[in-house]
Amino acid sequence: MKSMTKLMVVAMLLVAALVVAPAAARTIDAEGVSALADGDIIYVGEDKLDFTGITGMAGATSVKLVHFTDKTADNTIIVPATGAELKKSDVGTKTGSYYVLLTGDPSNLDQITPLGRETVEIQIPRVDLDVRLWEANKSADSLKDSVKDKSITRNENLFFRVDTNLNGFVGVANAPVFDIEVTLPGGGVTTQFRDVSALKGVPANESTTIYRPTTDGAIGNITKPINLKGIEAGTYVVQAKWPKATSFYDKGFDSNAVSFEVLTKALAISSNKDSVVRGNSFTVTITGESNKEYYLYIKDAKLEKSKYPEIVPSQKGWQRQMLNGSVKGFVNTSMVGEVFETTAGGTRSVQFDTYTVTDDRQFTIRVEDPEDPSTYDEVKVRVEEGDVTITASGTGTYYIGEEITLSGTCTEGDTVYLFMTGPNLKTNGVHLIDLIPAKSGDTPADKATFKDVEVEADDTWSYKWNTADINGTLDAGGYTIWAVSKPRNKEDLSEANYATTSVHLNTGYLTATSSGATVAKGDELKITGTAMGDPNNVRIWIFGKNYYGKPSELYVRTETVESDGSFELTLKSGETDDLAAGQYFVVVQHPMGDKDFGVEEDATQPGYIKAPGMVPFKITGLQASDAASAVINALDSVNVDDTYVKLTFNVQEAYITIDPIGTKQAGSKFTITGTTNVAVGDKLIVDVTSSAFGPTKKTEASGFGSVSGTAVVEKGDGVNKWSYEVDAADFKPDQYIVKVECIETDTTTTAEFNLVEKDETTPTVTVTTTAPAGEATTTAPVEKPTTEPTPPAPGFGALVALAGLGAVAFLVLRRK
């Protein structure tokens, strides 16, 4: 308990000592010794530092400075207590607050804090210098136009601005000083620039920001700038440096160097283009004195103001419009003129825009000194007419309803205007879509009579003209498409650039056919064709007995038209298998140019159809031929532009026939043929097998002969045909069964033929008789007797009889 009381007393005494003892301020004596106190700012590079004035350091021979991050010591510097130098290698990047401790003290923040140890702030000395333009009646803080790495003229005024972090020397006597050195164009170095001599020995103990120079050497806002009038032209370099007398000398803490060039500039103007196509821009550059106002205008060309190139509004450096009489003959209501101020480097770039209304001629652009009209310069820029081109994709022949890509270039203006001329259209042209007359002019209403297309940055343009969107009737024929740089119709083309291309429009057409006039039930039927005119779809109506696309129900099929105009509808085997035998009617409908089907089902009344100018009527109650006629009559209406193709096909029960085969010889080759109504291309399975059966001897390879394969149905004369070749080399004489089957239609037929032994014919022997001398020799053939053909082996009936006899014999033996 007593020990606890003692600790509390010691702590209270320490607190009282801290409260009563005032913190000493940093002092620097004539020898440069810096006596430090708690909280002082010290700088890397300083020497002769004395830490003995910090609490607890009296009499110490060395101290350690400890930096903490998140309560962890991450840098420790040990230096002498007196005469210490703070080296860059010791500090590194760890700047900020350091605890000042005896070298034997623990470097543990939890143990340091209760002891109330004192700190110093370590910083890296920084001196930033800039050279800026000075302008009367402005504070130094608002002057931000640096001349670093720029060119200025001799009519400018300058000042030097120095920003530092040397506030640790504020109010400290004998603080270090720096010099502002100016390197002259000839290589000499001075600390007196023009009439300002306060560039040497600038104290570093005034404030964070120092403005230099002033005529009286005082620190603060500028009272008199550095005037460059009459100064030598060339490059100047300004830098703040630490002299040898300071501890910062030659340790890498000098300021940045600022270089600038002083020129004697003659007033001049140049253009980035000698000529420009109307609708594009060009830029002129003024070169003159720094931050000086100049007149910039286009010399009088006796034109309306709209026909001059225009200075783009609100450009940087713009001051005001020129007033009437600013220069002789200048009138700002009919000429182009503005006042611009140059930059600190004595230059200013100004953009001019041109338009399709700008006159195509040469313009003279002049820059003039308002204070001395005899000082001026001029540049000439020619504005030229642009060019327009147009092409149409493809061959130039199209179908009404197709999309045609029109494209080209336009080097005059940001828009091309399209219109069309052709047979019995308005003489001066019509709009490409609405067919309204093209009216010349520049008002929005006038422009609406043209199809306007935006020109891209690379001067190209493109427009996809969908002829299906044309509002109105456009007959087949030849037409001319015009591309114009202004909204001008055919009679006013002298006021614009233009180009033309020709297109020939045809009406769309339709062809269609079926894969066969007859289809067997269960077989596929294809309806194919070509629909030109770029329709998206065709519609296919099918009618039969009590069939309107579906049994007793109206159903119209829609088929997609491919990019080449082809289309295809396939009635699969499952569909035709359900069709009743008989005749069917097909109508294939093409929507033509408007791509809208004029005749279609009435969605509100099942079984009804509708068409323009007609009252919807029911066709599901009509017979097949009458229903087809009703659709055709509707398509023939003058109110419907659709075209169509009529087809018929018959549905039959599937059949296959086999032509008589006759008797064939063993070992021969022969062909089995037949007819069918299944579709061309269908495959028939053909099986040829012996009708006999019985035990096979072990010495024989097989008991019976057979063969199986496929036959492809081919188109015949009026009826389809098929054939199958049989090689009977391995067949034994017997009766054979031929089975022909079509899987698609589930149809089968059979036939029989006999195979007999091969004929053994008697070979002919030639006998030669030698005639007496003088007579001709004769040769007579001698025939051997022929062998009768072997009758066929017992067939199915013979084998049954033999089997019966065998059974009787077996029973007789059993009785015995």
Brief digest:
By secondary structure, the protein is mainly beta. It contains seven helices and 59 strands. It folds into six domains: 21-123, no CATH class; 130-263; 268-384, Immunoglobulin-like, CATH 2.60.40.10; 391-506, Immunoglobulins (Immunoglobulin-like), CATH 2.60.40; 510-652, Macroglobulin (MG2) domain (Immunoglobulin-like, Sandwich); 654-816, Sandwich (Immunoglobulin-like), CATH 2.60.40.
Structure in words:
The protein is mainly β. The protein folds into six domains: 21-123, no CATH class; 130-263; 268-384, Immunoglobulins (Immunoglobulin-like, Sandwich), CATH 2.60.40; 391-506, Immunoglobulins (Immunoglobulin-like), CATH 2.60.40; 510-652, Macroglobulin (MG2) domain (Immunoglobulin-like, Sandwich), CATH 2.60.40; 654-816, Immunoglobulins (Immunoglobulin-like). The protein contains seven helices and 59 strands. The strands form 15 sheets. Strands 10, 12, 13, 14, 17 and 18 form a six-stranded mixed β-sheet that branches. A six-stranded mixed β-sheet has the order 20-28-27-22-25-24, with no helix packed on it. Strand 41 (549-550) and strand 42 form a beta hairpin.
Keywords for this structure?
816 residues, mainly beta, Immunoglobulin-like, 6 domains, six-stranded mixed β-sheet, 7 helices, elongated, disordered N terminus, disordered C terminus
